[in-house]
Automatic annotation (TrEMBL):
Taxonomic lineage: Eukaryota, Metazoa, Chordata, Craniata, Vertebrata
Main location: membrane
Cellular compartments annotated: Membrane
Protein name from the UniProt record: Globoside alpha-1,3-N-acetylgalactosaminyltransferase 1 isoform X1
InterPro entries on file: Glyco_trans_6 (IPR005076), Nucleotide-diphossugar_trans (IPR029044)
Swiss-Prot/TrEMBL cofactor(s): Mn(2+)
């Protein structure tokens, strides 16, 4: 059956947008309502376990991405939004966007490149507050910051095992929000430091609770997702559950929702620890478990979380944020 494709044009202060599909118009309406109801908005309620067909990012064609999830959350990719229109919408709101990264042990070597690329591409024209969590504050480089952009170095405890560092991240984020960040930022993104921005990352990514599709599993059946499959784990995902496999390197949203999300993941990690269990992919397993029951209100396509070791597929028009080639064994030793 042929699908009817409708397009609309917006005119804002004399600026005419490029043609946008009707599914984007619905997403835009959701964005406006989200901001108007910022104080009163009730978050999505936890979703009960149910069986339904897996949404497929490449369902329409190998070169065209799905633009809407079954629960009506927009899937953001190049071509689904007008950057100029969003700039007119969001800049008058005087938002502050926070960004957390953990630079522990040898991972401090990535900070220079990460921060320089963020200054070039991340939320350009908006107030930004970088929160650098590190066990070596002296290793944080002095990178020139633009107007309205700030950086805070937050010392954290050293841990001998990499797994311990990973499982404590959600706890640290939730505690930092409760103590400080809730007073300083409107939205908060939590990103991995061993990555680099390659193209603009802007307000199209803002949402109540935001997840990013993992670049390794966007085109495979959910039965092949590396979920935690042991029922004894709090991160357990049953066969037939799951929508997309989300990457732990990118998540975010309104600061209050990120607090709830990180705290929920931390509670699951604590439950596993009490039972002598470590989930298959540590915090990423718990992140995926929670996104199944607490659906993201916005999903970022793999262009916001790419792996540079993979060739760029026809379905991705550009790459915005991607991993750097690295020696993981050396970094974690």
């Amino acid at each position: 059956m042929n699908r009817l494709k409708l397009e609309v044009l917006f005119v804002f202060d004399g600026h005419v947008s490029k043609p946008l599909r009707l599914d984007f118009f619905w997403s835009l309406r959701c964005l406006i309502n989200m901001k108007l109801q910022y104080k009163e908005e009730k978050p999505f309620q936890p979703v009960a376990q149910s069986q339904y067909p897996q949404p497929k990012l490449l369902e329409q064609s190998p070169t065209e991405l799905l633009t809407l999830t079954p629960w009506l959350a927009p899937i953001v990719s190049e071509g689904t939004f007008d950057p100029e229109l969003l700039r007119h919408m969001y800049q008058p709101l005087n938002l502050t966007i926070g960004l957390t990264v953990f630079a522990v042990g040898r991972y401090t070597c990535f900070l220079q490149h990460f921060l320089e690329s963020a200054e070039q591409f991340f939320m350009h024209g908006y107030r930004v507050h970088y929160y650098i969590f590190t066990d070596d504050p002296a290793a944080v480089p002095r990178v020139p910051l633009g107007a309205g952009r700030h950086l805070s170095v937050i010392p954290i405890q050293k841990h001998a095992r990499w797994e311990e560092i990973s499982t404590r991240r959600m706890e640290t984020i939730s505690q930092h929000i409760a103590r400080r960040a809730h007073r300083e930022v409107d939205y908060l993104f939590c990103l991995d430091v061993d990555m680099v921005f390659r193209n603009p990352w802007g307000p199209e990514t803002l949402g109540d609770l935001v997840a990013a599709i993992h670049p390794g599993y966007y085109a495979v059946s959910r039965r092949h997702f590396p979920y935690e499959r042991r029922p004894v784990s709090a991160a357990f995902v049953a066969d037939g559950e799951g929508d997309f496999y989300y990457g732990g390197a990118v998540f975010g949203g309104r600061v209050a929702r990120v607090y709830e999300f990180a705290r929920g993941c931390h509670m699951g990690i604590l439950a596993d620890k009490a039972n002598g269990i470590m989930a298959a992919w540590q915090e990423e397993s718990h992140l995926n478990r929670r996104f199944i029951s607490h659906k993201p209100s916005k999903v970022l396509s793999p262009e916001y979380l790419w792996d540079d070791k993979k060739p760029q597929p026809p379905s991705l028009k550009l790459i915005r944020f991607s991993t750097l080639d690295k020696d993981s064994d050396w970094l974690r030793s």
